[in-house]
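Why does residue order matter? Because the sequence determines the fold. Keep that principle in mind as you read this record.
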Amino acid sequence: MNDHYLKKLDRVTAILTQLQSKPTVRAQDLAEKFDVSIRTIYRDVKTLENAGIPIIGEAGNGYSLMDGYKLPPVMFTKQEVLSFITAEKLMQKFSHQSLGSHYQTAMEKVRSVLRNSDKSLIQNIEKQIDVYHHHTQSGDTLKNVIPIILESIADKTQLIIEYKTVDSQVTERTIEAVGVFFEFNYWYIMAFCTLRKDFRQFRVDRILQIFKTQNPFSQEYGQINDYRKYSDGEKTRVRLLVDKKIIRHIANSKRYYGFIEETETEHGIEMTFDTEWIDDGFPRWLITFADHATVIEPESLRIKLKNLVLNISKKIE
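Structure:
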Protein backbone atom coordinates (compact mmCIF):
# COMPACT_ATOMS: atom_id res chain seq x y z
CA MET A 1 0.00 0.00 0.00
CA ASN A 2 1.57 3.31 -1.04
CA ASP A 3 1.73 6.54 0.96
CA HIS A 4 -1.29 8.04 -0.83
CA TYR A 5 -3.63 5.30 0.32
CA LEU A 6 -2.13 5.25 3.83
CA LYS A 7 -2.79 8.98 4.18
CA LYS A 8 -6.33 8.54 2.88
CA LEU A 9 -6.98 5.69 5.31
CA ASP A 10 -5.73 7.77 8.23
CA ARG A 11 -7.84 10.73 7.15
CA VAL A 12 -11.01 8.71 6.64
CA THR A 13 -10.56 7.10 10.05
CA ALA A 14 -10.05 10.54 11.60
CA ILE A 15 -13.21 11.85 9.88
CA LEU A 16 -15.14 8.94 11.35
CA THR A 17 -13.82 9.88 14.80
CA GLN A 18 -14.99 13.47 14.23
CA LEU A 19 -18.46 12.23 13.30
CA GLN A 20 -18.58 10.17 16.49
CA SER A 21 -17.57 13.06 18.71
CA LYS A 22 -19.69 15.93 17.31
CA PRO A 23 -23.38 16.36 16.43
CA THR A 24 -22.59 17.93 13.04
CA VAL A 25 -19.36 18.27 11.08
CA ARG A 26 -18.92 20.65 8.17
CA ALA A 27 -16.89 19.67 5.11
CA GLN A 28 -15.15 23.06 5.18
CA ASP A 29 -13.97 22.51 8.76
CA LEU A 30 -12.68 19.03 7.90
CA ALA A 31 -10.85 20.36 4.85
CA GLU A 32 -9.09 22.98 7.00
CA LYS A 33 -8.28 20.45 9.72
CA PHE A 34 -6.68 17.95 7.34
CA ASP A 35 -5.30 20.53 4.90
CA VAL A 36 -7.05 19.09 1.85
CA SER A 37 -9.64 20.36 -0.61
CA ILE A 38 -13.37 20.22 0.11
CA ARG A 39 -13.79 17.92 -2.89
CA THR A 40 -11.38 15.48 -1.22
CA ILE A 41 -13.56 15.52 1.90
CA TYR A 42 -16.64 14.80 -0.24
CA ARG A 43 -14.87 11.75 -1.65
CA ASP A 44 -13.80 10.61 1.83
CA VAL A 45 -17.37 10.86 3.12
CA LYS A 46 -18.54 8.85 0.11
CA THR A 47 -15.93 6.20 1.02
CA LEU A 48 -17.45 5.94 4.51
CA GLU A 49 -20.95 5.68 3.09
CA ASN A 50 -19.84 2.90 0.72
CA ALA A 51 -18.42 1.09 3.76
CA GLY A 52 -21.89 1.03 5.33
CA ILE A 53 -21.60 3.99 7.74
CA PRO A 54 -25.05 5.70 7.86
CA ILE A 55 -24.12 9.36 7.35
CA ILE A 56 -26.88 11.96 7.25
CA GLY A 57 -26.47 15.23 5.41
CA GLU A 58 -24.94 16.47 2.21
CA ALA A 59 -22.35 18.84 0.85
CA GLY A 60 -22.87 22.37 2.17
CA ASN A 61 -25.09 21.42 5.13
CA GLY A 62 -22.75 19.36 7.30
CA TYR A 63 -22.65 15.68 8.13
CA SER A 64 -23.70 13.60 11.13
CA LEU A 65 -24.15 9.95 12.03
CA MET A 66 -27.65 8.51 12.09
CA ASP A 67 -29.06 8.85 15.60
CA GLY A 68 -28.70 5.63 17.57
CA TYR A 69 -26.01 4.16 15.34
CA LYS A 70 -23.32 2.52 17.47
CA LEU A 71 -19.76 1.99 16.35
CA PRO A 72 -17.24 -0.42 17.82
CA PRO A 73 -14.99 1.06 20.55
CA VAL A 74 -12.36 3.47 19.27
CA MET A 75 -8.83 2.05 19.29
CA PHE A 76 -6.22 4.33 20.85
CA THR A 77 -2.58 4.66 19.87
CA LYS A 78 0.16 4.16 22.47
CA GLN A 79 0.87 7.91 22.43
CA GLU A 80 -2.81 8.67 23.11
CA VAL A 81 -2.87 6.20 26.00
CA LEU A 82 0.19 7.87 27.54
CA SER A 83 -1.45 11.29 27.17
CA PHE A 84 -4.50 9.97 29.10
CA ILE A 85 -2.27 9.00 32.02
CA THR A 86 -0.63 12.43 32.12
CA ALA A 87 -4.00 14.19 31.85
CA GLU A 88 -5.36 12.06 34.69
CA LYS A 89 -2.47 13.12 36.95
CA LEU A 90 -3.10 16.78 36.15
CA MET A 91 -6.82 16.40 36.82
CA GLN A 92 -6.11 14.81 40.19
CA LYS A 93 -4.07 17.83 41.28
CA PHE A 94 -5.75 20.78 39.57
CA SER A 95 -9.39 19.87 38.92
CA HIS A 96 -12.19 21.02 41.16
CA GLN A 97 -13.38 18.26 43.50
CA SER A 98 -16.83 18.30 41.86
CA LEU A 99 -15.20 17.38 38.53
CA GLY A 100 -12.67 14.88 39.82
CA SER A 101 -15.10 12.04 40.52
CA HIS A 102 -16.78 12.44 37.12
CA TYR A 103 -13.42 12.43 35.37
CA GLN A 104 -12.44 9.31 37.29
CA THR A 105 -15.49 7.39 36.11
CA ALA A 106 -14.92 8.65 32.55
CA MET A 107 -11.34 7.36 32.67
CA GLU A 108 -12.57 3.99 33.91
CA LYS A 109 -14.78 3.77 30.83
CA VAL A 110 -11.84 4.67 28.61
CA ARG A 111 -9.69 2.01 30.29
CA SER A 112 -12.43 -0.57 29.78
CA VAL A 113 -12.12 -0.38 25.97
CA LEU A 114 -8.32 -0.47 25.87
CA ARG A 115 -6.44 -3.47 24.60
CA ASN A 116 -4.81 -5.65 27.25
CA SER A 117 -1.37 -4.49 26.16
CA ASP A 118 -2.40 -0.86 26.70
CA LYS A 119 -3.88 -1.67 30.12
CA SER A 120 -0.53 -3.20 31.08
CA LEU A 121 1.22 -0.08 29.77
CA ILE A 122 -0.90 2.11 32.06
CA GLN A 123 -0.30 -0.13 35.05
CA ASN A 124 3.46 -0.06 34.50
CA ILE A 125 3.90 3.65 33.94
CA GLU A 126 1.20 5.53 35.89
CA LYS A 127 3.27 5.42 39.11
CA GLN A 128 6.20 6.97 37.24
CA ILE A 129 4.31 10.23 36.58
CA ASP A 130 3.54 12.83 39.23
CA VAL A 131 2.54 16.48 39.40
CA TYR A 132 3.83 18.52 42.32
CA HIS A 133 1.28 21.11 43.36
CA HIS A 134 2.14 23.00 46.54
CA HIS A 135 -1.08 24.98 47.00
CA THR A 136 -3.78 23.55 49.21
CA GLN A 137 -7.18 22.95 47.67
CA SER A 138 -9.86 25.43 48.67
CA GLY A 139 -12.46 24.07 51.08
CA ASP A 140 -15.66 24.53 49.09
CA THR A 141 -19.02 24.41 50.86
CA LEU A 142 -20.67 22.70 47.88
CA LYS A 143 -19.41 19.50 46.31
CA ASN A 144 -21.18 19.49 42.93
CA VAL A 145 -21.11 23.16 42.08
CA ILE A 146 -19.16 23.26 38.78
CA PRO A 147 -21.26 20.58 37.03
CA ILE A 148 -24.38 22.57 37.99
CA ILE A 149 -22.83 25.73 36.54
CA LEU A 150 -21.84 23.97 33.32
CA GLU A 151 -25.34 22.52 32.96
CA SER A 152 -26.84 26.01 33.28
CA ILE A 153 -24.47 27.29 30.56
CA ALA A 154 -25.45 24.42 28.25
CA ASP A 155 -29.17 24.91 28.97
CA LYS A 156 -28.89 28.74 28.95
CA THR A 157 -30.83 29.03 32.21
CA GLN A 158 -30.26 31.32 35.18
CA LEU A 159 -28.78 30.31 38.54
CA ILE A 160 -29.56 31.67 41.99
CA ILE A 161 -26.54 31.72 44.30
CA GLU A 162 -25.98 32.64 47.91
CA TYR A 163 -22.55 34.29 47.86
CA LYS A 164 -20.14 35.31 50.61
CA THR A 165 -18.10 38.38 49.65
CA VAL A 166 -14.48 39.04 50.62
CA ASP A 167 -15.69 41.13 53.59
CA SER A 168 -17.93 38.22 54.75
CA GLN A 169 -21.24 39.74 53.66
CA VAL A 170 -23.75 37.21 52.33
CA THR A 171 -25.92 38.21 49.38
CA GLU A 172 -28.29 36.40 47.03
CA ARG A 173 -27.66 36.86 43.32
CA THR A 174 -29.36 35.71 40.15
CA ILE A 175 -26.71 35.13 37.54
CA GLU A 176 -26.34 34.04 33.92
CA ALA A 177 -23.09 32.09 33.76
CA VAL A 178 -20.86 32.69 30.75
CA GLY A 179 -18.10 30.27 31.75
CA VAL A 180 -15.73 29.04 34.44
CA PHE A 181 -11.96 29.48 34.69
CA PHE A 182 -9.10 28.51 37.00
CA GLU A 183 -6.61 31.17 38.07
CA PHE A 184 -4.19 31.55 40.98
CA ASN A 185 -5.37 28.33 42.62
CA TYR A 186 -9.09 29.20 42.58
CA TRP A 187 -12.05 28.44 40.31
CA TYR A 188 -14.19 31.39 39.21
CA ILE A 189 -17.49 31.91 37.41
CA MET A 190 -17.73 34.69 34.87
CA ALA A 191 -21.41 35.70 34.80
CA PHE A 192 -23.89 38.45 34.12
CA CYS A 193 -25.35 39.56 37.45
CA THR A 194 -28.99 40.61 37.15
CA LEU A 195 -28.73 42.60 40.39
CA ARG A 196 -25.79 44.73 39.22
CA LYS A 197 -26.86 44.66 35.56
CA ASP A 198 -23.24 43.99 34.72
CA PHE A 199 -20.64 41.23 34.35
CA ARG A 200 -18.99 39.94 37.51
CA GLN A 201 -16.70 37.10 38.47
CA PHE A 202 -17.53 34.96 41.51
CA ARG A 203 -15.08 32.73 43.34
CA VAL A 204 -16.56 29.24 43.46
CA ASP A 205 -15.43 28.45 47.01
CA ARG A 206 -17.43 31.46 48.27
CA ILE A 207 -20.74 30.11 46.94
CA LEU A 208 -22.74 28.89 49.94
CA GLN A 209 -25.85 27.70 48.05
CA ILE A 210 -26.67 27.26 44.37
CA PHE A 211 -30.05 26.61 42.74
CA LYS A 212 -30.96 25.87 39.15
CA THR A 213 -33.95 27.68 37.66
CA GLN A 214 -35.98 27.27 34.48
CA ASN A 215 -35.63 30.98 33.64
CA PRO A 216 -33.87 31.46 30.29
CA PHE A 217 -30.93 33.81 29.74
CA SER A 218 -31.94 37.39 29.02
CA GLN A 219 -29.38 37.66 26.21
CA GLU A 220 -26.87 35.72 24.11
CA TYR A 221 -23.23 35.51 25.26
CA GLY A 222 -19.94 34.95 23.48
CA GLN A 223 -16.86 33.08 24.65
CA ILE A 224 -15.55 33.48 28.18
CA ASN A 225 -12.33 35.21 27.04
CA ASP A 226 -14.43 38.02 25.56
CA TYR A 227 -15.63 38.87 29.07
CA ARG A 228 -12.50 38.20 31.11
CA LYS A 229 -10.97 41.23 29.38
CA TYR A 230 -13.98 43.27 30.45
CA SER A 231 -13.70 45.45 33.56
CA ASP A 232 -15.72 48.30 34.95
CA GLY A 233 -13.09 49.38 37.47
CA GLU A 234 -11.04 52.55 37.09
CA LYS A 235 -7.50 51.73 35.95
CA THR A 236 -4.22 53.52 36.54
CA ARG A 237 -1.32 53.41 34.06
CA VAL A 238 1.90 52.25 35.71
CA ARG A 239 5.39 52.14 34.16
CA LEU A 240 8.31 50.40 35.84
CA LEU A 241 11.98 49.93 34.95
CA VAL A 242 12.92 46.45 36.14
CA ASP A 243 16.30 44.70 36.25
CA LYS A 244 16.54 41.98 33.61
CA LYS A 245 17.64 39.36 36.11
CA ILE A 246 14.35 39.59 38.04
CA ILE A 247 11.97 39.36 35.06
CA ARG A 248 11.67 35.57 35.07
CA HIS A 249 10.60 35.64 38.73
CA ILE A 250 7.53 37.77 37.98
CA ALA A 251 6.65 36.25 34.58
CA ASN A 252 3.43 34.64 35.85
CA SER A 253 2.24 37.08 38.51
CA LYS A 254 2.60 40.20 36.34
CA ARG A 255 -0.50 39.35 34.30
CA TYR A 256 -2.68 39.40 37.39
CA TYR A 257 -1.75 43.05 38.01
CA GLY A 258 -2.72 44.39 34.59
CA PHE A 259 0.44 43.78 32.57
CA ILE A 260 0.24 45.19 29.02
CA GLU A 261 3.69 45.17 27.46
CA GLU A 262 7.41 45.29 28.09
CA THR A 263 10.30 46.83 26.17
CA GLU A 264 13.99 46.07 26.56
CA THR A 265 16.21 49.13 27.09
CA GLU A 266 19.90 49.57 27.88
CA HIS A 267 18.99 50.16 31.53
CA GLY A 268 16.59 47.25 31.98
CA ILE A 269 13.09 46.14 31.03
CA GLU A 270 10.42 48.86 30.88
CA MET A 271 7.09 47.31 31.88
CA THR A 272 3.66 48.89 31.40
CA PHE A 273 0.53 48.05 33.41
CA ASP A 274 -3.08 49.19 33.60
CA THR A 275 -4.05 48.23 37.13
CA GLU A 276 -7.18 48.52 39.25
CA TRP A 277 -5.27 47.86 42.49
CA ILE A 278 -3.06 50.92 42.65
CA ASP A 279 -4.04 51.68 46.26
CA ASP A 280 -3.13 48.38 47.87
CA GLY A 281 -2.62 45.25 45.78
CA PHE A 282 -0.11 46.63 43.26
CA PRO A 283 2.20 48.33 45.82
CA ARG A 284 2.27 45.17 47.95
CA TRP A 285 3.18 43.08 44.90
CA LEU A 286 5.81 45.60 43.79
CA ILE A 287 7.51 45.58 47.18
CA THR A 288 8.47 41.92 46.67
CA PHE A 289 10.99 43.02 44.02
CA ALA A 290 11.24 46.76 44.74
CA ASP A 291 15.02 46.56 45.19
CA HIS A 292 15.25 45.64 41.51
CA ALA A 293 12.70 48.14 40.15
CA THR A 294 12.25 51.87 39.62
CA VAL A 295 8.83 53.52 39.40
CA ILE A 296 8.69 55.73 36.31
CA GLU A 297 5.05 56.70 36.82
CA PRO A 298 2.77 57.55 38.59
CA GLU A 299 4.27 59.61 41.40
CA SER A 300 1.46 58.44 43.69
CA LEU A 301 2.80 54.89 43.51
CA ARG A 302 6.22 56.04 44.76
CA ILE A 303 4.52 57.66 47.74
CA LYS A 304 2.43 54.56 48.50
CA LEU A 305 5.50 52.36 48.24
CA LYS A 306 7.49 54.64 50.55
CA ASN A 307 4.69 54.66 53.15
CA LEU A 308 4.44 50.88 52.95
CA VAL A 309 8.18 50.50 53.57
CA LEU A 310 7.97 52.88 56.55
CA ASN A 311 5.13 50.88 58.08
CA ILE A 312 7.08 47.66 57.62
CA SER A 313 10.14 49.24 59.23
CA LYS A 314 8.10 50.19 62.29
CA LYS A 315 6.84 46.62 62.62
CA ILE A 316 10.33 45.13 62.72
CA GLU A 317 12.08 47.72 64.92
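The chain is about 40% helix and 25% strand.
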